[in-house]
Amino acid sequence: MTEEDSGPSGESCSKQPDPPGDSLSSQRVFKKSSPNNKLTLYLSTRDLIVSAGKIDRLQGVLLVDPEFVEDRKVYGQITLTFRYGREDEEVMGLKFCNEAVMCLAQLYPITMPSMIDEITPLQEALMKRLGPNAYPFCMEITPLAPPSVQLVPAKEYNGAPIGTSYDIRAYVADKADEKLHRRTTVRMGIRVVQKAFAPPSPYGYNPGTTNDTAAGQKDRSSKHKIALFGCKSAPLDTKGYSAPHAVVEKYFLLSDGRVELEASLDKAVYHHGEEIQVTVHVHNNSNKTIRRIKVFVVQHVDVCMFSNGKFKNVVAMINAKEDCPVPLGKHVTRSYNLLPIKSSTKNWIALEDSYTKTGISLASTVTSCGNHPDERNVFAIYVSYYVKVKLIMSVMGGNVSLKLPFSLMHTCNDYDPCGTLTRSIEPPHLSANETKTASGIESNTEMDPKVCDEVKPEKDGT
What we know:
By secondary structure, the protein is mainly beta. Helix content is 4%, strand content 38%. The chain is built from three helices and 25 strands.
């Protein structure tokens, strides 16, 4: 499956004034037609938001040419495509991708009369403008569907996107299980996106609980004393989650004293584009010297389909030399701000599935519902993040480090799939100077290019 662009396209036309109270005057609409222009799909959004165990329903309008369909039916299906290998390495008919139909429904003729009572104002306005051959539809998939995640190899790659992606397909057939014909099928890419207020990563802890065993006892083998996520005074962030906090102490063999490292984050859940504030406290009560303080953000990717599909990427790093070296008896307290961004890595990096190649961000946190192998989704790509603070010691001193897991997710404030532009659509009618685009899709609907996004066809013409 190839990447689709959501940029506007179409003929520039004179725009008629919108009637008062028109629901389309402030809505964005995505449109795509089949190669023979007999089916046209309209969607108000291409993103299904998952939050608090619920998922949005996919609602739109299908414009049908009844003379072409005749006695046949129009079916719609939401398909999950999981590509786990490079397309340019497929040889001798070998395919590195799997498909699963998440939802299958008959869109025309309408088989559920109750759907008429559930149409949205946008669907009603579209049906009014498109005419009697426009039919509303509603499709829904399970909220357990894995979010859309794209894996980008370290080496240059221009083939079909690797990872988990979704699309909706509407096609004309006599039976639902018939083979899809390219010219009578309209396909549009969609995404499943996690939104904030979902739980943070499973590494969170309940405030007020302590790990007395870890905090009060020494590990005789490593001479460490660790207290992870167990401070009673851990502050709460604005969403009520305990901000990650950890303390580690290291004792040295054949040497007196210890090095104590304490670090915390200002909150547990961050949204994309937000800086992560890390507060570090270092107490050096040993005769060892701390040369540097290294703080970095790590993205951990787990491709569930493979037992060895685990890799890490550093997405932000600060190699601090201020206040260093730290000699015996010195105490250092500093705050560091890190912004996780995509950068060149040695391993595959997980990005958010995107319709365009611009503005691609890191993938949101994706966690499994359980730790048992049977509870893991085979098509899922689990993504987690943590901040690692590392003290670089002098020779023969070793290193002292700790991890602070956090969640990187969309929030209701920063995620707006429709942007800030207002969109509308004009009534369709045939024009004497109909033109054909380079992809072979006939433009017979009069639209304002600033008003409607016409999804570009894929390389195979669909």
